[in-house]
Amino acid sequence: MNAIPELNDYTDRSLLIVEDDKPFLDRLARAMETRGFAVTACDSVSSGLAQIGRSAPAFAVVDLRLGDGNGLDVVSALKRERPDARAIVLTGYGNIATAVTAVKMGAVDYLSKPADADDVVAALLSTDTEKSEPPPNPMSADRVRWEHIQRIYEMCNRNVSETARRLNMHRRTLQRILAKRAPR
């Protein structure tokens, strides 16, 4: 297996992080700075797009769902301004369809939250010829189902009846699932 290139192999170490979770944004920005990146942090799609307009970075870490829009718009704008830029998408609402869309729009990888800084660096610097290692503890089928239900529940603004309708599930069954703790 090929070794992951080091950041020292890159002359431009500019990194844009677009994340609306302020504590996570601050932690990730500090961690990436300690790993040698020149970080610019933004908390919205509009500020991320404005930053790309001023100076397109070599790297980007973008949250998929932001308060004012979709993070894929930032990835798309970055790839238009700087085709050689390497962007990854982070999300707590991961699914195959959005992962495929992110890669089609130019993202080099797609990571589920919580991702630590080492995972982010590995994804940003990995080459296309490498195969990523499977996670050491993949989610169980029950956990995947629970995550999907939670995502739909949030999309329906925490409306149990609407969520049950969209999932084609009885409302009381859904209430019992929501009342339980997340499976491992």
Jot down its keywords.
5-stranded parallel beta sheet, 8 helices, 45% helix, ActR_PrrA_rreg, Arc Repressor Mutant, subunit A, alpha/beta, phosphorelay response regulator activity, 184 residues, phosphoprotein, Rossmann fold
Structure, described:
The protein is α/β, with parallel strands linked by helices. It folds into 2 domains: 7-125, Rossmann fold; 141-179, Arc Repressor Mutant, subunit A, CATH 1.10.10.60. It is 45% helix and 17% strand. It contains 8 helices and 7 strands; from the N terminus they run βαβαβββαβαβαααα. The strands form 2 sheets. A 5-stranded parallel sheet has the order 2-1-3-6-7, with helices on both faces. A two-stranded antiparallel ribbon has the order 4-5. α6 crosses α7 and α7 crosses α8. The chain is elongated and about 55 Å long. The model has no long low-confidence stretch (mean pLDDT 82).
Tally of helical segments: 8
Describe the biggest sheet?
5 strands, parallel
Name the shape in a single word: elongated
Please state the structural category.
alpha/beta
Query: Whole-number average pLDDT?
Result: 82
Tally of DSSP β-strands = 7
Helix content percent band: 40-55%
SSE sequence, one letter per element: EHEHEEEHEHEHHHH
Low-confidence stretches: none
- Could you name the CATH topology of the largest domain? Rossmann fold
What Rg do the Cα atoms give? Answer: 18 Å
How far from one another are the termini?
31 Å
- Which architecture of the largest domain per CATH? 3-Layer(aba) Sandwich
Percent strand: 15-25%
Order of strands across the widest beta sheet?
2-1-3-6-7
Please name the fourth-level CATH homologous superfamily of the largest domain. Answer: Response regulator
Level-1 CATH class name of the largest domain: Alpha Beta
Number of separate structural domains: 2
